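Quick log. Single chain, no ligands specified.
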Amino acid sequence: MSGDFDAIVIGAGQAGIPLAGRLSAAGRRVALIERAALGGTCVNTGCTPTKAMVASAHAAHLARRGADFGVAIDGPVGIDFAAVQARQRRISGDSRAGVESWVAGMANCTLIRGHARFRSAHEVEVDGDVLAAPQIFLNVGTRAAVPELPGIGDVTVLTNVELLALNVLPEHLIVVGGSYIGLEFGQIFRRLGSAVTIVEKAPRLVAREDEDVSAAIEGVLAAEGVAIRTGAECIRFARGGGGIRVGVDCTQGEPEVVGSHVLLAVGRRPNTEDLGLDRAGVAVDARGYVTVDDGLRTSVDGIFALGDCNGRGAFTHTSYNDFEIVAANLLDGGDRRVTDRLPAYALYTDPPLGRVGMTEREAREQGRPVRVGQRPMTRVGRAVEKGETQGLMKVVVDAATEEILGAAILGPGGDEAVHGVLDMMSVGGSAEAMRRAVPIHPTVSELIPTIFGELGPPG
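-> predicted structure:
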Protein backbone atom coordinates (compact mmCIF):
# COMPACT_ATOMS: atom_id res chain seq x y z
CA MET A 1 0.00 0.00 0.00
CA SER A 2 1.96 2.97 -1.28
CA GLY A 3 0.86 6.46 -0.36
CA ASP A 4 1.23 9.60 1.68
CA PHE A 5 0.31 9.89 5.33
CA ASP A 6 0.46 12.57 7.99
CA ALA A 7 2.43 10.28 10.27
CA ILE A 8 4.16 6.92 10.12
CA VAL A 9 4.69 4.89 13.28
CA ILE A 10 7.23 2.08 12.94
CA GLY A 11 6.66 -0.49 15.65
CA ALA A 12 3.46 -1.39 17.47
CA GLY A 13 4.82 -1.47 21.01
CA GLN A 14 3.85 0.25 24.23
CA ALA A 15 4.52 3.73 22.82
CA GLY A 16 3.67 3.25 19.16
CA ILE A 17 0.11 2.01 19.55
CA PRO A 18 -1.20 4.71 21.90
CA LEU A 19 0.58 7.36 19.81
CA ALA A 20 -1.11 6.05 16.67
CA GLY A 21 -4.38 6.24 18.56
CA ARG A 22 -3.88 9.84 19.67
CA LEU A 23 -2.75 10.98 16.23
CA SER A 24 -5.58 9.22 14.41
CA ALA A 25 -8.14 10.57 16.89
CA ALA A 26 -6.82 14.06 16.12
CA GLY A 27 -7.66 13.50 12.45
CA ARG A 28 -4.17 12.63 11.25
CA ARG A 29 -3.79 9.91 8.62
CA VAL A 30 -1.52 7.37 10.28
CA ALA A 31 0.33 4.31 9.01
CA LEU A 32 1.24 1.89 11.80
CA ILE A 33 3.86 -0.61 10.62
CA GLU A 34 4.64 -3.84 12.51
CA ARG A 35 6.66 -6.82 11.29
CA ALA A 36 5.77 -9.16 14.17
CA ALA A 37 3.06 -9.33 16.84
CA LEU A 38 1.21 -6.24 18.05
CA GLY A 39 1.94 -5.20 21.60
CA GLY A 40 5.72 -5.40 21.53
CA THR A 41 7.93 -7.19 24.04
CA CYS A 42 5.72 -6.50 27.05
CA VAL A 43 2.64 -8.27 25.78
CA ASN A 44 4.32 -11.08 23.86
CA THR A 45 7.65 -12.06 25.41
CA GLY A 46 8.10 -9.83 28.44
CA CYS A 47 5.94 -8.50 31.26
CA THR A 48 2.67 -10.31 30.58
CA PRO A 49 3.80 -13.92 30.08
CA THR A 50 6.62 -13.76 32.63
CA LYS A 51 4.47 -12.31 35.40
CA ALA A 52 1.90 -15.02 34.67
CA MET A 53 4.70 -17.54 35.26
CA VAL A 54 5.74 -15.71 38.44
CA ALA A 55 2.17 -16.23 39.69
CA SER A 56 2.27 -19.97 38.91
CA ALA A 57 5.64 -20.30 40.61
CA HIS A 58 4.35 -18.41 43.65
CA ALA A 59 1.35 -20.75 43.89
CA ALA A 60 3.68 -23.75 43.88
CA HIS A 61 5.93 -22.17 46.51
CA LEU A 62 3.00 -21.31 48.77
CA ALA A 63 1.54 -24.81 48.42
CA ARG A 64 4.84 -26.32 49.55
CA ARG A 65 4.73 -24.03 52.59
CA GLY A 66 1.19 -25.03 53.50
CA ALA A 67 2.25 -26.58 56.80
CA ASP A 68 3.68 -23.21 57.89
CA PHE A 69 0.13 -21.87 57.87
CA GLY A 70 -1.55 -24.95 59.32
CA VAL A 71 -2.68 -26.23 55.94
CA ALA A 72 -2.16 -29.96 55.33
CA ILE A 73 -1.46 -31.16 51.79
CA ASP A 74 -1.38 -34.90 51.10
CA GLY A 75 1.75 -35.81 49.17
CA PRO A 76 4.23 -33.65 47.29
CA VAL A 77 3.13 -30.65 45.24
CA GLY A 78 3.00 -31.54 41.55
CA ILE A 79 3.80 -29.25 38.64
CA ASP A 80 1.91 -29.48 35.36
CA PHE A 81 4.39 -27.52 33.25
CA ALA A 82 2.21 -27.78 30.15
CA ALA A 83 -0.62 -26.13 32.07
CA VAL A 84 1.74 -23.41 33.36
CA GLN A 85 2.82 -22.63 29.82
CA ALA A 86 -0.72 -22.79 28.46
CA ARG A 87 -1.81 -20.30 31.10
CA GLN A 88 0.89 -17.73 30.34
CA ARG A 89 0.26 -18.10 26.60
CA ARG A 90 -3.47 -17.67 27.06
CA ILE A 91 -3.02 -14.53 29.15
CA SER A 92 -0.53 -13.13 26.64
CA GLY A 93 -2.82 -14.02 23.76
CA ASP A 94 -5.80 -12.34 25.38
CA SER A 95 -3.77 -9.19 25.92
CA ARG A 96 -2.57 -9.24 22.30
CA ALA A 97 -6.14 -9.73 21.06
CA GLY A 98 -7.19 -6.67 23.04
CA VAL A 99 -4.43 -4.64 21.41
CA GLU A 100 -5.42 -5.88 17.97
CA SER A 101 -9.03 -4.87 18.61
CA TRP A 102 -7.89 -1.44 19.77
CA VAL A 103 -5.85 -0.84 16.62
CA ALA A 104 -8.65 -2.14 14.38
CA GLY A 105 -10.96 0.49 15.88
CA MET A 106 -8.69 3.45 15.00
CA ALA A 107 -10.62 5.18 12.22
CA ASN A 108 -7.72 7.01 10.56
CA CYS A 109 -5.03 4.40 11.16
CA THR A 110 -3.85 1.89 8.55
CA LEU A 111 -2.07 -1.15 9.97
CA ILE A 112 0.66 -2.42 7.65
CA ARG A 113 2.40 -5.74 8.29
CA GLY A 114 6.02 -5.92 7.24
CA HIS A 115 9.58 -4.72 7.77
CA ALA A 116 10.00 -0.98 7.31
CA ARG A 117 13.25 0.54 6.06
CA PHE A 118 14.01 4.19 5.36
CA ARG A 119 14.56 5.35 1.78
CA SER A 120 15.02 8.97 2.85
CA ALA A 121 14.27 11.17 5.81
CA HIS A 122 10.54 11.11 5.08
CA GLU A 123 10.05 7.90 3.09
CA VAL A 124 9.98 4.28 4.18
CA GLU A 125 9.64 1.12 2.14
CA VAL A 126 7.67 -1.93 3.29
CA ASP A 127 7.88 -5.01 1.06
CA GLY A 128 8.21 -2.87 -2.09
CA ASP A 129 5.60 -0.27 -1.13
CA VAL A 130 6.81 3.27 -0.48
CA LEU A 131 5.15 5.37 2.21
CA ALA A 132 5.83 9.03 2.93
CA ALA A 133 5.02 11.31 5.86
CA PRO A 134 6.39 14.54 7.34
CA GLN A 135 6.58 12.89 10.76
CA ILE A 136 7.94 9.42 11.49
CA PHE A 137 8.04 7.79 14.92
CA LEU A 138 10.29 4.85 15.76
CA ASN A 139 9.15 2.37 18.41
CA VAL A 140 11.16 -0.67 17.37
CA GLY A 141 12.26 -1.92 20.80
CA THR A 142 15.11 -4.20 21.75
CA ARG A 143 15.95 -7.90 21.83
CA ALA A 144 18.17 -10.11 23.94
CA ALA A 145 21.87 -9.56 23.36
CA VAL A 146 23.82 -12.65 22.30
CA PRO A 147 27.52 -11.78 22.62
CA GLU A 148 30.29 -13.77 20.98
CA LEU A 149 31.28 -15.80 24.01
CA PRO A 150 33.68 -18.73 23.51
CA GLY A 151 31.88 -21.83 22.26
CA ILE A 152 28.47 -20.19 22.06
CA GLY A 153 28.04 -21.37 18.47
CA ASP A 154 28.60 -24.98 19.51
CA VAL A 155 25.64 -25.26 21.86
CA THR A 156 21.99 -24.26 22.01
CA VAL A 157 21.39 -21.24 24.21
CA LEU A 158 17.99 -19.77 24.95
CA THR A 159 16.89 -16.16 25.26
CA ASN A 160 13.72 -15.10 27.07
CA VAL A 161 11.79 -15.73 23.84
CA GLU A 162 12.83 -19.38 23.46
CA LEU A 163 12.49 -20.04 27.19
CA LEU A 164 8.85 -18.97 27.09
CA ALA A 165 8.30 -21.35 24.18
CA LEU A 166 9.59 -24.43 26.03
CA ASN A 167 7.18 -27.33 26.45
CA VAL A 168 9.46 -29.44 28.66
CA LEU A 169 10.60 -28.36 32.11
CA PRO A 170 14.42 -28.10 32.16
CA GLU A 171 16.15 -30.59 34.43
CA HIS A 172 18.90 -28.08 35.20
CA LEU A 173 18.64 -24.50 33.93
CA ILE A 174 21.86 -22.48 33.91
CA VAL A 175 21.13 -18.77 33.81
CA VAL A 176 24.02 -16.70 32.48
CA GLY A 177 23.41 -13.21 33.82
CA GLY A 178 22.59 -12.31 37.40
CA SER A 179 20.43 -9.27 36.84
CA TYR A 180 16.71 -8.58 36.55
CA ILE A 181 15.58 -10.93 33.76
CA GLY A 182 17.92 -13.73 34.80
CA LEU A 183 16.88 -13.66 38.46
CA GLU A 184 13.18 -13.66 37.68
CA PHE A 185 13.46 -16.69 35.42
CA GLY A 186 15.85 -18.40 37.79
CA GLN A 187 13.41 -18.28 40.68
CA ILE A 188 10.46 -19.19 38.47
CA PHE A 189 12.05 -22.38 37.20
CA ARG A 190 13.47 -23.35 40.61
CA ARG A 191 9.99 -23.13 42.09
CA LEU A 192 8.59 -25.14 39.19
CA GLY A 193 11.05 -27.93 39.94
CA SER A 194 14.20 -27.31 37.90
CA ALA A 195 17.65 -27.26 39.39
CA VAL A 196 18.94 -23.73 38.74
CA THR A 197 22.40 -22.20 38.67
CA ILE A 198 22.89 -18.48 38.14
CA VAL A 199 26.26 -17.45 36.69
CA GLU A 200 27.26 -13.79 36.98
CA LYS A 201 30.52 -12.17 35.93
CA ALA A 202 30.29 -9.37 38.51
CA PRO A 203 31.21 -9.93 42.16
CA ARG A 204 27.54 -9.82 43.19
CA LEU A 205 24.04 -10.08 41.77
CA VAL A 206 22.16 -7.02 40.48
CA ALA A 207 25.24 -4.84 40.92
CA ARG A 208 23.18 -1.73 40.14
CA GLU A 209 21.58 -2.02 43.57
CA ASP A 210 23.16 -1.16 46.91
CA GLU A 211 25.17 -4.00 48.43
CA ASP A 212 22.69 -4.64 51.25
CA VAL A 213 19.80 -4.94 48.80
CA SER A 214 21.86 -7.17 46.51
CA ALA A 215 22.81 -9.41 49.42
CA ALA A 216 19.19 -9.71 50.52
CA ILE A 217 18.10 -10.75 47.03
CA GLU A 218 20.87 -13.34 46.87
CA GLY A 219 19.76 -14.65 50.26
CA VAL A 220 16.20 -15.12 49.04
CA LEU A 221 17.32 -17.16 46.04
CA ALA A 222 19.91 -19.19 47.91
CA ALA A 223 17.35 -20.14 50.56
CA GLU A 224 15.24 -21.70 47.81
CA GLY A 225 18.10 -23.80 46.53
CA VAL A 226 19.27 -21.64 43.64
CA ALA A 227 23.03 -22.12 43.15
CA ILE A 228 24.81 -18.81 42.61
CA ARG A 229 28.23 -18.44 40.99
CA THR A 230 29.44 -14.84 41.00
CA GLY A 231 32.83 -13.61 39.88
CA ALA A 232 32.62 -15.77 36.75
CA GLU A 233 35.53 -14.25 34.86
CA CYS A 234 35.67 -16.58 31.86
CA ILE A 235 32.24 -17.71 30.73
CA ARG A 236 32.44 -20.27 27.92
CA PHE A 237 30.32 -23.10 26.51
CA ALA A 238 30.88 -26.65 25.31
CA ARG A 239 28.98 -29.88 24.94
CA GLY A 240 29.75 -32.71 27.33
CA GLY A 241 28.86 -34.35 30.61
CA GLY A 242 25.43 -35.24 29.28
CA GLY A 243 24.46 -31.63 28.65
CA ILE A 244 25.92 -28.16 28.19
CA ARG A 245 29.10 -27.31 30.05
CA VAL A 246 29.37 -23.68 31.12
CA GLY A 247 32.84 -22.58 32.17
CA VAL A 248 32.89 -20.06 34.97
CA ASP A 249 36.47 -20.10 36.41
CA CYS A 250 35.26 -18.71 39.72
CA THR A 251 37.70 -18.36 42.57
CA GLN A 252 35.75 -20.96 44.53
CA GLY A 253 33.86 -24.06 43.49
CA GLU A 254 34.02 -26.21 40.40
CA PRO A 255 35.37 -24.46 37.28
CA GLU A 256 32.44 -25.72 35.17
CA VAL A 257 28.71 -26.23 35.62
CA VAL A 258 26.77 -28.74 33.53
CA GLY A 259 23.11 -28.16 32.74
CA SER A 260 20.38 -29.35 30.43
CA HIS A 261 19.43 -25.83 29.26
CA VAL A 262 21.13 -22.43 29.22
CA LEU A 263 19.37 -19.08 29.39
CA LEU A 264 21.41 -16.12 28.19
CA ALA A 265 20.29 -13.00 30.06
CA VAL A 266 23.21 -10.59 29.70
CA GLY A 267 21.48 -7.49 28.40
CA ARG A 268 19.53 -6.12 25.45
CA ARG A 269 20.36 -4.60 22.08
CA PRO A 270 18.21 -2.20 20.01
CA ASN A 271 16.43 -3.31 16.85
CA THR A 272 17.93 -0.50 14.80
CA GLU A 273 20.58 -2.04 12.56
CA ASP A 274 18.23 -2.98 9.71
CA LEU A 275 16.07 0.14 9.45
CA GLY A 276 18.16 2.08 6.95
CA LEU A 277 18.72 4.83 9.48
CA ASP A 278 21.83 5.97 7.62
CA ARG A 279 19.72 6.75 4.55
CA ALA A 280 17.54 9.00 6.70
CA GLY A 281 20.52 10.58 8.45
CA VAL A 282 19.36 9.44 11.90
CA ALA A 283 22.24 9.32 14.39
CA VAL A 284 22.77 6.39 16.73
CA ASP A 285 25.24 5.91 19.57
CA ALA A 286 28.03 3.33 19.81
CA ARG A 287 25.60 0.64 20.98
CA GLY A 288 23.06 1.31 18.23
CA TYR A 289 20.52 3.24 20.30
CA VAL A 290 18.87 6.15 18.50
CA THR A 291 20.15 9.47 19.82
CA VAL A 292 17.33 11.72 21.04
CA ASP A 293 16.99 15.01 22.87
CA ASP A 294 14.84 15.70 25.92
CA GLY A 295 11.72 15.81 23.74
CA LEU A 296 12.59 12.50 21.99
CA ARG A 297 13.51 14.21 18.72
CA THR A 298 16.25 12.52 16.72
CA SER A 299 18.99 14.24 14.75
CA VAL A 300 16.56 14.60 11.81
CA ASP A 301 13.70 17.07 11.91
CA GLY A 302 10.34 15.28 12.01
CA ILE A 303 11.72 11.90 13.18
CA PHE A 304 11.24 10.80 16.78
CA ALA A 305 12.33 7.69 18.67
CA LEU A 306 10.27 6.28 21.53
CA GLY A 307 10.65 3.32 23.84
CA ASP A 308 13.58 1.06 24.47
CA CYS A 309 15.31 1.81 21.15
CA ASN A 310 16.31 5.31 22.32
CA GLY A 311 18.29 4.12 25.34
CA ARG A 312 16.47 6.53 27.66
CA GLY A 313 14.50 3.83 29.43
CA ALA A 314 14.11 0.07 29.37
CA PHE A 315 10.63 -0.51 30.71
CA THR A 316 7.03 -0.54 29.58
CA HIS A 317 6.24 2.42 31.81
CA THR A 318 9.09 4.52 30.38
CA SER A 319 7.98 3.62 26.86
CA TYR A 320 4.44 4.69 27.64
CA ASN A 321 5.75 7.89 29.18
CA ASP A 322 7.66 8.55 25.96
CA PHE A 323 4.30 8.43 24.17
CA GLU A 324 2.80 10.83 26.71
CA ILE A 325 5.68 13.28 26.23
CA VAL A 326 5.49 13.28 22.43
CA ALA A 327 1.68 13.42 22.33
CA ALA A 328 1.53 16.27 24.83
CA ASN A 329 4.16 18.30 23.01
CA LEU A 330 2.78 17.76 19.50
CA LEU A 331 -0.95 17.78 20.16
CA ASP A 332 -1.53 19.61 23.45
CA GLY A 333 0.97 22.45 23.28
CA GLY A 334 2.95 20.94 26.13
CA ASP A 335 6.61 21.17 27.06
CA ARG A 336 7.22 17.79 28.67
CA ARG A 337 10.69 16.28 28.89
CA VAL A 338 12.26 12.91 29.50
CA THR A 339 14.30 14.30 32.38
CA ASP A 340 11.10 15.22 34.24
CA ARG A 341 10.48 11.59 35.18
CA LEU A 342 11.91 9.74 38.12
CA PRO A 343 13.83 6.52 37.53
CA ALA A 344 11.68 3.72 38.92
CA TYR A 345 11.34 0.01 38.30
CA ALA A 346 10.70 -3.35 39.93
CA LEU A 347 12.45 -6.70 40.08
CA TYR A 348 9.79 -9.41 40.06
CA THR A 349 11.43 -12.00 42.19
CA ASP A 350 9.27 -13.09 45.13
CA PRO A 351 9.38 -11.04 47.24
CA PRO A 352 9.60 -8.26 44.65
CA LEU A 353 11.87 -5.25 44.78
CA GLY A 354 10.40 -1.82 44.15
CA ARG A 355 12.92 0.95 43.41
CA VAL A 356 12.65 4.69 42.85
CA GLY A 357 15.22 7.46 42.56
CA MET A 358 18.84 7.10 43.64
CA THR A 359 20.50 4.29 45.53
CA GLU A 360 22.52 5.22 48.58
CA ARG A 361 25.69 4.62 46.58
CA GLU A 362 24.58 6.90 43.75
CA ALA A 363 23.72 9.69 46.18
CA ARG A 364 27.09 9.44 47.90
CA GLU A 365 28.93 9.35 44.58
CA GLN A 366 27.29 12.69 43.78
CA GLY A 367 28.79 14.07 46.98
CA ARG A 368 25.44 14.61 48.65
CA PRO A 369 25.21 14.39 52.45
CA VAL A 370 22.62 11.74 53.12
CA ARG A 371 20.58 10.22 55.89
CA VAL A 372 19.45 6.63 55.48
CA GLY A 373 16.47 4.90 57.03
CA GLN A 374 16.19 1.13 57.02
CA ARG A 375 14.04 -1.62 58.49
CA PRO A 376 14.11 -5.39 57.94
CA MET A 377 10.89 -7.09 56.98
CA THR A 378 11.13 -9.09 60.20
CA ARG A 379 10.04 -5.85 61.91
CA VAL A 380 7.07 -5.20 59.60
CA GLY A 381 3.88 -6.56 61.12
CA ARG A 382 2.10 -7.24 57.86
CA ALA A 383 5.08 -9.23 56.56
CA VAL A 384 5.17 -11.30 59.77
CA GLU A 385 1.45 -12.01 59.53
CA LYS A 386 1.82 -13.17 55.94
CA GLY A 387 4.84 -15.30 56.80
CA GLU A 388 6.97 -13.38 54.30
CA THR A 389 9.74 -11.74 56.30
CA GLN A 390 12.58 -11.80 53.80
CA GLY A 391 13.87 -8.44 52.60
CA LEU A 392 14.09 -4.88 53.85
CA MET A 393 12.85 -1.33 53.39
CA LYS A 394 15.31 1.49 52.78
CA VAL A 395 15.01 5.23 52.12
CA VAL A 396 17.65 7.84 51.26
CA VAL A 397 17.21 11.52 52.14
CA ASP A 398 19.35 14.61 51.51
CA ALA A 399 20.59 15.54 54.97
CA ALA A 400 20.70 19.26 54.20
CA THR A 401 17.40 19.80 52.40
CA GLU A 402 15.14 16.90 53.49
CA GLU A 403 14.65 16.06 49.80
CA ILE A 404 13.70 12.43 49.30
CA LEU A 405 16.37 10.98 47.01
CA GLY A 406 15.28 7.37 46.67
CA ALA A 407 13.85 4.22 48.16
CA ALA A 408 14.08 0.46 47.85
CA ILE A 409 11.44 -1.91 49.19
CA LEU A 410 12.24 -5.62 48.97
CA GLY A 411 9.41 -7.54 50.54
CA PRO A 412 5.75 -8.51 50.16
CA GLY A 413 4.12 -6.04 47.78
CA GLY A 414 7.35 -4.06 47.46
CA ASP A 415 6.53 -3.23 43.84
CA GLU A 416 3.28 -1.62 45.01
CA ALA A 417 4.39 -0.14 48.35
CA VAL A 418 7.21 1.85 46.76
CA HIS A 419 4.64 3.99 44.96
CA GLY A 420 3.94 5.85 48.20
CA VAL A 421 7.48 7.22 48.05
CA LEU A 422 7.41 7.60 44.27
CA ASP A 423 4.24 9.71 44.40
CA MET A 424 5.63 11.92 47.16
CA MET A 425 8.82 12.45 45.17
CA SER A 426 6.81 13.23 42.03
CA VAL A 427 5.15 16.21 43.70
CA GLY A 428 8.31 17.39 45.43
CA GLY A 429 7.26 16.28 48.89
CA SER A 430 9.86 16.27 51.64
CA ALA A 431 10.82 13.68 54.21
CA GLU A 432 8.93 15.74 56.78
CA ALA A 433 5.76 15.54 54.67
CA MET A 434 6.22 11.78 54.47
CA ARG A 435 6.62 11.54 58.24
CA ARG A 436 3.26 13.31 58.73
CA ALA A 437 1.32 10.80 56.60
CA VAL A 438 -1.25 8.62 58.37
CA PRO A 439 -1.11 5.23 56.62
CA ILE A 440 -3.50 2.30 56.84
CA HIS A 441 -2.82 -0.49 59.32
CA PRO A 442 -1.90 -3.28 58.84
CA THR A 443 0.11 -2.80 55.65
CA VAL A 444 3.70 -2.86 54.52
CA SER A 445 3.34 0.77 53.44
CA GLU A 446 2.46 1.92 56.96
CA LEU A 447 6.11 1.57 57.98
CA ILE A 448 7.32 4.05 55.36
CA PRO A 449 6.58 7.17 57.49
CA THR A 450 8.14 5.38 60.46
CA ILE A 451 11.38 4.78 58.56
CA PHE A 452 11.49 8.46 57.56
CA GLY A 453 11.17 9.23 61.26
CA GLU A 454 14.09 6.96 62.14
CA LEU A 455 16.72 8.23 59.73
CA GLY A 456 20.32 7.64 60.66
CA PRO A 457 22.80 10.47 61.27
CA PRO A 458 24.08 12.56 58.35
CA GLY A 459 27.00 11.07 56.51
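The CA atoms of residues 26 and 430 lie 39 Å apart.
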